[in-house]
Amino acid sequence: MATELKLLAFDTSTEVLSVAVRRGDRLLEHSGAGGAQSSTTLIPLIQQLLAEAGLALAELDAIAFGRGPGSFTGLRTACSVAQGLGFGAGLRLLPIDTLQAVAEEAHHRFGAMRVVAVLDARMDQVYAARYELGSAAAPAGEAVLLAPEEVEVPPGWALAGNAFAAYGERLPVAAARHEVLPTAAAMLRLVPELLAAGRTVAPAEAWPLYVRDKVAQTTEERAALKAATTDSSS
Fold it and tell me: Cα–Cα distance between 21 and 8 in angstroms, integer?
């Protein structure tokens, strides 16, 4: 592996957009308003940070992006931008779970070693997954969708994420609570080990992780459902 990795990472899964570029020991990062704005601001921000780092897109070793779970619109934005950049520059992509980035951020900022990561899923639910931290965040189970009261935090584990403002005391008691987001910088810290483990994929194989899949129905699915409803009532 190259001694001076050149990497790009971005996440648009929450209300905060996060972009970061690493060139060796130099880190450039930006955060700003996410949500619907991400689709128009993400590519200009990527271009800006690459220019500040003195890098062309084709020089990158990999592109990491937050694959989810999270905002459906945000996940589709991140995935489509990553695919477009990957196809255009002939680069491999590294999809990273947003909950894994939450756990890594809690580890980096607060020293948490065992983390239950939670992200607000709206609709009175949260996305959750457990991670045991070592040299990288290792999942102790798959991401799940739960009511806040259904999240289980083992004794001694920390709870980290962005769900505290929305659900407060409905979330269980934990050894510590850390308000953190899945930042692009956290993803970049995970990249070297994930690269060494061969976790990159071709652009055509990079897809979002929704968890709550059927909420985001396609136009075709909605049309089919409407037609079926009309036929059954006639």
Answer: 5
Is residue 233 included in any domain, yes or no? no
Q: Region 197-202: what's the mean pLDDT?
A: 94
Max Cα separation, the chain?
A: 68
Q: Give, as one character, the DSSP assignment of residue 69.
A: S
In percent, the amount of the chain with pLDDT more than 90 equals: 79
H or E element that contains 48:
helix 38-53
Query: Do 39 and 87 fall within a single domain?
Result: yes
Angstrom distance (rounded) from CA 223 to CA 74: 23
CA distance 74 to 121: 13
Residues 23 and 91 in one domain: yes
pTM passes above 0.85:
yes
Contact 78, 182 (CB under 8 A): no
| Torsion, CA 200, CA 7, CA 31, CA 164, rounded to 10 | 40
